[in-house]
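Researcher: Here's my situation. A collaborator sent me these components and asked whether they could plausibly form a single complex. I don't have experimental data yet, so a predicted model of the whole assembly would be a useful starting point for our discussion.
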Amino acid sequence: MRDFVDITEIDRNIIEHLFEMSDMIINRHMHIRKNNILDGKNIILAFFEPSTRTRLSFEIAVKRLGADALTVVGEEAVSLSKGESFGDTLRMFDILGDLLVLRHKYDGAAKYAAEMVKIPVINAGDGKNQHPTQAIIDLYTVYKRLGQIDGLNYAVVGDLRYARTAHSFLLALTHFEPKNVYLVSPPQLKPSESLIAELRERGLQFYLSENLEEVIDMVDVIYVTRIQKERFPDPEEYEKVKGSYRLTYEMIKNRKDIIVLHPLPRVDELDTRIDNTQAAAYFDQVRNAVPVRMSVVAWSAGVEL
Amino acid sequence: MSKKELKVSRIKNGTVIDHIPAGRAMEVLRILKITGKEGFMVLIAMNVYSKKLKGKKDIIKIEGKFLSDKETAAISLVAPTATINIIKDGEVKEKKGVKAPTLVEGILKCPNPVCVSRIERENISSKFIKVSENPLTYKCVYCGTRIEESDIPKYLNM
Ligand SMILES: [Zn+2]
C-alpha cells in the first residue's frame, strides 16, 4: 500500500509501470466493465472542493476495479467537518475506509492526510499545489500519441502560478529527459520562485517566455491551461493579456506533428476549431483518465492487475 | 577591544553567542525574546572584527541564561556561523557551533497563506527541510514553498 500524493516522489519506473498497467487495462477492456480486483474494499472519495471531472473519473475507476466508492462532496464534506477538525475527519476516514482519494483547497492537504492516516492516500488535487494523477494522464497521453516523452520539446502555456495541473505536469517531466521546455505565461502568472528553483534543481532545461507565437514553431507538445479572470485585480489587464495565450487553429494548422493538451475545462484559450484536427489530444486525456486512475488506485492499494 | 574592557564584559554564568554574522544580533535577541527589561545582564557587541569570519561579527553575552534546543535551532537559521559558549563559574564549560538542522519543525511559518500548515484551528506543526546550505534555504514539506536565508527572520515563528 502506497501513497500517491507528490509527483516528485513518483519515480520514472513507477510512472512507466503505471503506463503498462493502463495499456493492459485498455487492451483487456477492463475500463469498460466491472472487475473484481478490489472486491470488498471501501474507497472514500472526499472532495472538499467541488470537481466534476476528476470525481467522476475516480468514481468510475474505483467501481470498475470492483471496490465500493463512498463519495463525500462539497457542502456535505464541509458540514461534515463543521466544528470538527480536518484531522479528526481524516481519522474517521482512516477507520472506515481502505483507501482515501482527497481533493482539498489547501496546498499540502494530501501530504498532511498521508501523515495522519494509515490507509493509502491519493491526491486528487490540493489547492494550487499539485494534481499528480492528472500529470500521469497527461504524460500517458503524450506517450500514446508520440511514442515517447524523452527528447521532445514542450510548451506549457497560461497560468503557471496557480494551475496545479501545470505544476504537476512540469514536475512529472523532470523524471524524463525532455529536450526543451518553454514556460509561456503573462508576467503576473509566471511560475513561483519556489517552482523555478525546484525545476532547476531537478535539471529541467526550461525557458520563460511571454509569447506563445515566439515558441510555437519549436515545440512538439503544447499544454494549454486556462487563465482565470479572477487572478487579475484589474479586468482590463486580463483583457489585454488573454489574447497572447490563446491557441488558435491558424497557429497549428500547418503543423502535422504537433499535439495539444488541455486539462479542461476550457473557456476561450483553446480554439474549438482545433477539436477536429489531428493535433487535439485533450479528448484523449479525458478518455485516458479512467484507465490511468484505475492503475493508480490499484498501485496504491498494492495489487497487481 | 582592550584586555581591561574584555574583563568588564565577562559573564559568570550564562551564554556567549559569538560569530554572529554582522548585523544579525538583533534577530538573535528577538528569538531569545530579550528586550532588556528582563533584568539580567546582556552585553551586545556589533561589527567587531573577526579573524574567523574574515570580517565583522556580532557577539551577545547573556548572564543567567541558557538556551533551549528550540532557541539554538532558531539561532542556527538566522546566524549559521554562530558559536555558543556555555559559561559556568566564569569558565567556558562547553563550546559548540550551531548547525542549521536538516528538518525544522514548528519554528518557521510557511509564507504561503493557503498552505495546510497555516490552517489555524488545525494546529499543524510546520515542517521545513533544508534544500541548500549556502545560501541557507528551506522548503515547506507540505506545499513546497521555499524560504531563503535573507527571508528567514521574517518567517521565524517563536
Ligand atoms: Zn507550506
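Model: Some features of this prediction you could bring to your collaborator: Chain A has two domains: 7-130+288-300, 132-285. The longest strand of chain A covers residues 42-47.
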